[in-house]
Amino acid sequence: MSMKTQIAQENVGRGILTICVGMMFLVTNDAIAKVLTDRYHPVHIIFLRNLIAVPMIVAAVWSLTGAQGLRTRTLGLHAGRGFIMLAAATLYFTSLSVMPLAEATALVFAAPIFITALSVPLLGEQVGWRRWSAVLVGFAGVLIIVQPGGSAFQLASLMPVGVAFLYALFMLSARWLDPGEGLLTMMLYVVLFPLIYAAPFALWLWVPVQAADLWLFVLIAICGSLGITLIGQAFRMAPAAVVAPFDYTSLIWAAALGWLIWGEVLTPATILGAMVIIASGIFIVVREARA
Q: What is the spatial distance between Cα 117 and Cα 122, in angstroms, rounded to a whole number?
């Protein structure tokens, strides 16, 4: 085995480990948000989380790249992406207040399906019949979990599906960002603009923060920031086709935390639907990598 091949394999291993740890932090972020929704409005949670996160990210950017790391050539696009992120986070945190953590997580897995479907009108990409078939299979998985028309159906189940759609828009819009921008610079604006947009609503909906909850807001800021950073870094360390499927390890974390904290148990419909969505998502990633 050549030295170059060995280094490549080591990078792949590190990339997989990095995205798995990143997903653990993101799901922990979601679990804390679910706890906080019992006492605070989702916009209130987003505002305080980002208010704590922004100074930490600015400090990291400044120490690593200096003032130039705070500059961007696509401020307007960052502003639009920030609005999408705020809408997605608000919708998702609202769904967590009434849904099991793992079920909401499984429905957000539909994002790659929306990315494939939206890449045609938004980016003009060519999608073959195999990937369109995978999209249809993925939506079938969503229907298995949501169960429209069934006794177990609840309108809140559509919220994570909406989150998946918004997340797909957010990810596709990254194609138009300045390719020279660093990961921390992009993350800064992802956190900064939702903070600005959420501020007036958070102040209007303001309730005093309980002293015992302060550490939760600090923890959610740390977990959210670390999760996004590690996931972005994983895609830089290894090919997307290798790393992306491990995004689905978030369901393991969500199921574990849901059971430990709230005693939630995955239903057969959620397990089956998640398996269908995951299979279609992995197929889409592999086909796109080959294309």
A: 9
Q: Which of 253, 180, 202 is nearest to 34 (CA)?
A: 253
Q: What is the DSSP letter of 207?
A: -
The CA distance from 12 to 239, in Å, is: 8
As a whole number of Å, the CA-based R_g of the chain is: 19
Residues 201 and 89 sit within 8 Å (Cβ to Cβ): no
55: Cβ contacts below 8 Å, ≥ 6 apart: none
Q: Are 279 and 118 in contact (CB under 8 A)?
A: no
The neighbour count for residue 160, using CB atoms within 10 Å, is 29
What is the tens place of the pLDDT at every residue in 187-232? 899 999 999 999 999 989 888 999 889 999 999 999 998 888 888 7
Q: Is the pTM of this model over 0.85?
A: yes
| Domain boundaries defined on the chain | 12-290
Residues whose CB falls within 8 Å of the CB of residue 215, separated by 6 or more in sequence, listed in order: none
pLDDT digits (tens, 9 = 90+) for 239-250: 776 787 888 999
Tell me the C-alpha distance between 234 and 17, whole Å. Answer: 8
Q: What is the DSSP letter of 192?
A: H
C-alpha span between 152 and 269 (Å, rounded): 10
Instruction: Give the DSSP letter string of 138-191.
Output: HHHHHHHHH-TTSTT--GGGHHHHHHHHHHHHHHHHGGGS-TT--HHHHHHHHH
> How does DSSP assign 228-243, residue by residue?
HHHHHHHHHHS-HHHH
* pLDDT higher than threshold 90 for residue 80: yes
